[in-house]
Amino acid sequence: MISENLSEVKNNIKKACEKVGRDVKEVTLIAVSKTKPASDIEVAYENDIRNFGENKVQEIGDKYPVLPKDIKWHLIGHLQTNKVKYIIDKVHLIHSVDSVHLAEQIEKEAVKRNVDMDILIQVNVAEEDTKFGLKTEETINIIKEISKFPHVHIKGLMTIAPFTDVAEENRIYFRNLKVLSDEISELNIPNVEMKELSMGMTGDYEVAVEEGATLVRVGTAIFGNRNYNK
Ligand SMILES: *Cc1c(COP(=O)(O)O)cnc(C)c1O
Q: Whose CA is nearest to atom 12 of ligand 1?
């Protein structure tokens, strides 16, 4: 099942790229494996997936030691400052940085371990009360603050669009994130790159790709529905 699902998702990404004249190599599929067992991840790995997304520090801690070392782990969920130390040497990219305070903690832990950490800034472009992330209008000032931490490198923006059955409804949010990213790019802030746009999930990744996503985070369409109660 996972193999077939992956072919379908990859094919949909390819079609979305063709529709707008993008090179499919610009888009990386992150398989969101939260709540799923290591055996599911191994199947995706055998199908050439190397980027996996998790939203809990604990789960990365459990899966990291038992899975191949060339996997790139993406922390996509809200990160508490006191947990940074558990993932700093394990993850490839933290997608969910939304405060100077959190970035400062990442800086401290990065110095301790003598590593550099790539991050994305999470923006709540749709301004949903229930979601983490910065407001669009405060993003530039906070990026300027975070850019001063020498071991923390901003690589782009991330958003979680509203849950909807109609993917087209989210197009405006993806488009707005891209506009913000271009705006920040033009400021040429030292230690800030705007090369990644992490947007699009099972319900709307094709639309996100059409609007410029470079990282799509897809779980359900690959691994099936999640069971949070076990
Ligand atoms: C769970 C999750 C996803 C994947 O969601 P699906 O709808 O299953 O594709 C993507 N991004 C974040 C931040 C998530 O928490």
A: 76
Centre of ligand 1 from the C-alpha of residue 171, in Å: 17
Which residue's structure tokens are 């599929």? 29
C-alpha distance from residue 166 to each of 108, 130, 152, 169, 207 (Å): 42, 19, 36, 6, 10
Nearest ligand 1 atom to the CA of 203 is 7
Q: What is the pTM of this model?
A: 0.97
Half-sphere exposure of 208 (CA within 13 A, CB side): 27
Neighbours of 187 (CB within 10 A): 11
Rg over CA atoms, the chain = 17
- Residue range 75-124, pLDDT digits in tens: 999 999 999 999 999 999 999 999 999 999 999 999 999 999 999 999 99
